[in-house]
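Q: Predict the bound structure with iron/sulfur cluster.
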Amino acid sequence: MNSDLKLRIAELKERKNAIILAHNYQLSEVQLVADILGDSLELAMASAKTDADLIVFAGVDFMAETAAILNPDKKVVIPDPGARCPMAAQLPPDVIREARKKHEGAAVVLYVNTLAEAKAESDVICTSANSPQIVNALEEDTVLFGPDKNLAWFAQRRSDKKIIPIPENGYCYVHKMFTAADIALLKERYPDAEVLVHPECDPEVQQLATHVCSTSQMLLRTKASPAKRFIIATEIGLVERMRRENPSREFIPALNTAVCREMKRHTLEKVYRALKDEEHVVKVPEPIAERARASIKRMLELTGKAVQD
Ligand code: SF4
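A: Predicted complex:
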């Protein structure tokens, strides 16, 4: 059944000049049909460069919106429109406007995990891979940073600027599941393992890591490191990809139940239907898209990645 669907997906992709972008947290069956598999930054970059007419985005709402913002003339579809990131919903635009009033002169740096209306209120966007780099590249000494408080803490440890989280307690429910006690236990059991932790995890968990990094940085590390064993503290989908791409090494999920329910809404069947019916279309109203686009492009410029206009 799956192999038949895969064939039909390949045939449709070719006929419609389509591309499938999938996040590292997708189900394996979806990862396997992706043209580009990666983290938020890699997928934003890929969507900015593609010549495809149709983009099928297997990720959550804010990611598909980012692709739509960067490609106003292309059709962007999401296989399941219910794939909405709860963290992105924690930062509505009025909270940003209020914070700006309260901290006049501060820059607003928003994690890519925000909805388009919030991005439109920002000065620049960042990802988990580049947040310290972006914060440190700004002229302002005070930075309003949201919505993830743990990522703000991670950036603060790597910057002399004053970073103020907005809202006060934004979080990802998946990365909140990891505890320092669990990681300490695993470190005791596997003393030779490298511990790779995502910066959306709590500070106590980050402090136990060998490296704190984005999903793509984790992948690179597992390929470059001399270690043979890794404890991975992020969503389980990435561990599946690591095992597939690096079968000679051992990957120990820090928590088997760290599953993002929203990411897992996309199935192979839904990807096929999205391609066939060209649904569900993701469109961002142009006045909002224009302002959000400027902030995304500023991120890409600050990280030295040119974007085609
Ligand atoms: S893992 Fe967390 S931040 Fe990522 S999409 Fe799921 S809820 Fe949102």
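A: The two ends are 41 Å apart (CA to CA).
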